[in-house]
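Working notes for the structural subgroup meeting. M.R. asked for a predicted model of this chain before we commit to crystallization trials. I am recording the input and output together here so anyone reviewing the notebook later can reproduce the run.

Input as submitted:
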Amino acid sequence: MVVWLVALLSLSSVFPRLSPAWTAPAAESPAERTLSPYFFIPSGADGVERLPLKSTEVMVDIAGVIADVKVTQVYTNEGQTPIEAIYVFPGSTRAAVYGMKMTIDERVQVAKVAERNAARAQYTEAKAAGKSASLLEQQRPNVFQMNVANIMPGDQIRVELSYTELLVPTEGMYEFVYPTVVGPRYSNLPAATAPPTEQWIANPFLPEKYPQTSTFAIKVQLVAGLPLHSVASASHAVQIAYQSPLQATVSLAPTEQLGGNRDYILRYRLQGDAVESGLLLYEGEDENFFLLMAQPPQRVPAAQIPPRDYVYIIDVSGSMNGFPLDTAKQVMRDLASHLRPTDTLNVLLFSGGSAVLSPRSLPATPENVQQALGFIDREQGAGSTELLPALQRALALPQDERRSRSFVIITDGFVAVETQAFDLIRKNLHNANVFTFGIGSSVNRFLIEGLARAGGGEPFVVTDPYQAPATAQQFAHYIQIPVLTNVAVEYAGFEVYDVEPVSIPDVLAERPVLVFGKWRGRPHGAVTIHGTHGAGVYSQTSDVAHVTPLPTNSALRYLWARHRIAMLGDYQTLDPQDELVKEITTLGLTYNLLTAYTSFLAVDEVVRNVDGQNTSVKQPLPLPQGVTNLAVGGAVPTVPEPETYALMGIVGLLLFWMWTQRRESVS
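Returned structure, recorded in token form:
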């Protein structure tokens, strides 16, 4: 017996310990501590205001296809000492943030855009001098951080930021999304050596079911170019008032005052499922801008659909526990229902480690489909979220060259390795198309959309299980029957430059083809979209001379620059000296936009705090609706690591030896 125990202990020592999903900072030494979210612990004994954000108010004006958004954050200090409030909040992945202002009493300070490091240095100087100041930085294209310094006891400070975004319909449906909360991100970076741009990940969260500490309000003024058919919110209870067939006002119901724990989603259709398409022009002082929205043809079934290989890569980490993983399982079941006998499939589950259904993809027989569903059904969701190793393992799986391979990634996206994941997919684009399913009430859309864009696929977001069947049906249509291929744009007599995108990918969904750019001279000539679809050759022409440049299209300059920045960001390396960094910085400064390298800074020149001492307070965030405490608290991975299997085998052998010894003693 002693020999067996010694063997067990010696063998187990060669295997590393399993790491939890999020390791509590107090349980580690400073050298071992990683950037991890943690739970907020209420304490008012020190006289410091720990919950400075009191409300977020959003005003949205949608005119045609352009949304202009004003977000007002109200900070108060009900404590006894000056504070610096630090608030991490999400934004739309398509938002072009073009302005910010800060109001203290009756004094209004309009923010200026500056290079990121310079803005941070000026903010730090103003803070030390006792001046109230606000600094807005971009941590990710969809994650922003607001710092407000020298909030004095009794203060109320209002910070308003402005952004615009383009609304692009899919299958005739328009959708406006206002993200409300940043979900807890997994990171394995050491806290002591992590760069400043990653420090936001270590943010406090309110425990599950903890009362929310700030109110949320949003109001949408909708003016369409064609009569409205339907308007509804998929996420919140709303009140809708129609002023005319073209106009509606959408307000939150009184019961939704604490609805800031999930994305606000507003969807609307125009009569006859029409879409607003065509050419928009803007004539500026120094530059002129255009936007072409060309509606593609109706989907036509292909005569023959080639066999495909589907590899489902499913997140079973702690943040997926409960509602997200239940929804993911439903999505998987519905996706599997569309498989054909000629297709093949495989499943890779990942959290801290990964497990694969089969070394090679299996024919999509009913038996193999049931085996795949059973493989995920037993998972409950726990552990960290190691996305990159999972993608690398999936890319290494053997591939049948006769089949078109598609990766279907199902996750909430609560990771901090977006750029590395995009780069990995882009470098292996020849191996598979990538389709992503974002699961949950507040997914990381930057990751979900970016992976699909890098992999030449489509992103989907499923906020509840009831959406799963329709979304799976949509996916089946997209992947089997492309809308338009071999897309090209021709400009005849219309002098254009700085056109984005340079090349247009295949159109998988029934949504307009978008082309941004600048133009010179007089607006005349024609713009033609060419392509191939199921019924043959397709072309659509817009007569430029019949389009009038309008001052109301001034947002086109921001939208062009934002689109250009997004495209540059997709191809950016991690090298800070990269030429793309310089180009993004120049675009931000030229067009007055928030970017990863340009920030907004507002300073009130009145010295209000003589000694300049501030207590820095990180505003705790609510967990997204449906996300459990396992997204923040430690838990062992549900996908056993290789060392776990080894230990299980050793324990099994030990138990078997004990059983045989007992039988021998009895006999």
